[in-house]
Design goal:
Layout lengths: L6 E4 L4 H9 L3 E4 L23 H22 L7 E10 L2 E3 L5 H11 L3 E12 L2 E13 L4 H8 L21 E5 L2 H5 L3 H10 L6
Parallel strand pairs: 1-2, 1-3
Antiparallel strand pairs: 3-4, 3-5, 5-6, 6-7
Amino acid sequence: MKPADNRIYLASKSPRRRELLRQIGVDFELLMLRDQSHRGGPDVSEEVHPGEKAGDYVVRVTRDKANYAAQAMLMRRLPMRPVLTADTTVVVDERILGKPADKAEAMDMLRLLSGRTHQVITSVALRHDEEFWQLTQVSEVSFAPLSEDMMRAYCNTSEPYDKAGGYGIQGLASVFVARIEGSYTGIMGLPLHETAQLLQQAGISVL
């Protein structure tokens, strides 16, 4: 069913995703999911299951966010609109790199990425009424070799600590990137081509 207006809910705390949606003129409201609930845990667990592959992990977490956000919309008695969710993970040597907890972990991640190519996987989901759509985009990012001084200087900023893999391609870490193959906006956290496809399937016009 096409929504009554052209607005959606964005269930994400990421300021980059907000910026990217605004870039393509999407009208949205935030529907925030909690990192910690009154029961002592997050609304949606982002723990990796034993043996779970990175692609399966990011698809599952994005789907769970969409399902929970749709329930939250009903519980909070909000106007019914499509709900958009996304999740991004950085993968090297089949290891999933989440957001670093501290400087030491951020440094370890950058050492792992230095002078190598890694994958950035972003899955995007849209739920509206009983309909559900999801697309996943994979990009490859090659870092130049990084000196300890460069990594230390970067980790002394606030930039690494709210980003998967401990870096943001749109910020200071852009100087680390020798080559990318795939979607620049996907590496930022919301591949706009795939996102526009999902919105169009839900009757949300982008252009």
